[in-house]
């Protein structure tokens, strides 16, 4: 998961697998809470999934500010490139 496209594809696959969403609903502009109907418990599951994929944990405070799929992509991108 190095590029934003890689992160998006991995995230889309995770959202489809974890929350049984149709892949076409998962777009960069999709709002996690309104469009994809992700609730706070689902968000915790998603954070845990990201940790397993990257080996790094997104801070809950940072995840509170995400609204769209693109926000998550950017947060993961910053996370995986923080050491670079």
TrEMBL record:
<feature type="domain" description="Carrier">
    <location>
        <begin position="5"/>
        <end position="80"/>
    </location>
</feature>
<dbReference type="InterPro" id="IPR009081">
    <property type="entry name" value="PP-bd_ACP"/>
</dbReference>
<protein>
    <submittedName>
        <fullName>Acyl carrier protein</fullName>
    </submittedName>
</protein>
<dbReference type="InterPro" id="IPR036736">
    <property type="entry name" value="ACP-like_sf"/>
</dbReference>
<dbReference type="Pfam" id="PF00550">
    <property type="entry name" value="PP-binding"/>
</dbReference>
């Amino acid at each position: 998961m190095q590029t934003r496209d890689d992160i998006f594809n991995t995230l889309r696959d995770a959202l489809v697998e974890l929350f049984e969403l149709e892949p076409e609903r998962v777009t960069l502009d999709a709002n996690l809470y309104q469009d994809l109907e992700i609730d706070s418990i689902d968000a915790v599951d998603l954070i845990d999934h990201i940790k397993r994929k990257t080996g790094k944990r997104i801070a809950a405070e940072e995840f509170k500010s995400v609204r769209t799929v693109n926000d998550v992509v950017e947060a993961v991108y910053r996370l995986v490139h923080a050491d670079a």
